Amino acid sequence: MNSRNSDSVPKRTSISHGVKARDYARSLSTPWRRIQLSIKRVLDVLLVLGSFIFVAALVLILVILIRVESPGHAIFRQRRVGRYGRVFTIYKLRSMQDGCETVLNPDGSTRVVKDDPRITRLGKLMRSSGLDELPQLLNVLKGEMSLVGPRPDQEFHLQWYRAADYRRLAMRPGLTSLGQVSGRNSLSARQRMVYEIDYVKHFSLWLDCKIIARTLAVIVNGVGTYNIDHSRKPLISSAVESKR
To answer: Which terminus of the chain, N or C, has less C-beta within 10 A?
Structure first.
């Protein structure tokens, strides 16, 4: 499931974006924002540790079911770009047939089709419920990710970044994000980018709580994964919302 394009972007590109992202983070820094970021990290660790036994048991069950349904590794690893452009390895439960290549849309985003025949039956369930992302709690514990934050891009996505897109790299990437609960796969790459940058700019613990609540609602009723729920009030007034 790894893309052949992952090595097509020079390392200096992520370093350049990382330097700009660090400078942008400093420009946003205030005493209250720094306190909230510290609390956010503590909550990340406490919530992951508090749910460790339950999550570990659930992941073990899913690993067994994945191996029974289709051959191949149950957990796959992929290089992603994190805070300040640092590249790290992300972990996910395999939801597609083993060996599938990443397919891209013209705008550079990863193509996600609801009825993609490459997705296994268990994979459809895991994707709709977010269970395939559970191994990323290890990334959260390691400090590479957060529970809430911009979703991490693959390295080759950097070649489609515009001048100000490095701003999304000013915070740790998250398991769930503003873009994921605002339309997710129905959004264009540019719309998702605007949401992620807006999140970084307007970050607060209260916004994180609202995103987590919206994430749970998406998991329960499925609205917002492949379509936009227009009945819900936007979590923040973003540039995307103003264009609708």
So the answer is: C
